[in-house]
Design goal:
A hairpin with an 8-residue loop joins strand 1 (4-11) and strand 2. The protein has 2 domains: 4-118 and 297-327, Medium-chain alcohol dehydrogenases, catalytic domain (Quinone Oxidoreductase, Chain A, domain 1); 130-269, NAD(P)-binding Rossmann-like Domain (Rossmann fold), CATH 3.40.50. Helix content is 28%, strand content 28%. It is globular. The chain has helices spanning 46-53, 119-139, 158-167, 179-187, 201-208, 226-232, 269-272, 276-291, 308-316, and strands spanning 4-11, 20-27, 34-44, 68-76, 88-92, 102-106, 110-112, 147-150, 171-176, 192-195, 214-219, 233-241, 263-265, 299-304, 323-327.
Amino acid sequence: MDHRVTHAIVLRAPGGPKNLLWEEVAVPAPGPGELRIRHTAIGVNFHDTYVRSGLYKTLPLPGTPGLEAAAVVEDIGPGVTGFKPGDRIVYIDKSYGAYAEQRVLPAALALHLPNAISDEAAAALALKGMTVCMLVHHVHKVASGQTVLVHAAAGGVGQPLTRWAKHLGATVIATVGSTAKAEIARACGADHVILYCDESFVDKVRAITGGKGVDVAYDSVGKDTFGGSIECLSVLGHLVNFGQASGPVAPMNVSVLAAKSNSISRPMLFHYIRDRSSLESIMAETVKVIAAGVIKTEVGLRLPLKDAGEAHRALERRETSGALVLLP
């Protein structure tokens, strides 16, 4: 067998960023339906920190974290069609494995990367862009004239979410944690920006909307904002909770939704791209808005792959805005 010796980040036990170990690994030749690929840029997401800490027990240990990356095809396995060595690809893999210099990947997960999109842009925006596409087109269809609340609007998902919602004609109310992040949110098109650490976002939303509330609240913060997000909803308003940066949401009494006939969703992207047709469709929608400049690559931090732990520290301390990218 043609094995290559390379390096990867290996998680052997859940814990802090120091548990992300830089180790030598062997990468086998691709089997039937597989590609052997060399990563060129790797995306970092809050989901990765949940996996590392043990909050999400979805990575068998020892294992290599990482959901998304851009890469170049090095070799193809038996039966693979549509790909050849030298092709640029991007992928999302719910089974993880992206924090590596090289790996073997099922060809069914790979998507050709258009020349107009750089490797860094693909790694920074594949998961985030497809997540936003899911949020504004599939979980709740944002339309012109709606009012949208976006928490953590200066973050890696918050920025493209603000831009895409604004592109669709919505009025965007953004919450951020600092004046510097407020400027980022405004640059993304937010109509109103609330510093939620300094003022009640519930009171501000009520004042901005004349007491009506918002049609949809996109909440990736979780514990600290969930209750307030419900209060911000209009009659028939929809809360989309798609993350928990401040911690998991406590159990709630569902009857509180009856006061305004509200609804709550807790979507996971992988359920929306569970077959090849859905994957290609959502990726095509995402590539279209990236190519049109509707959403942009806002890379807040670039680090060598071996320093993945430092990327996690920065993300958990909320020291960055925009996306984080690891470079092999």
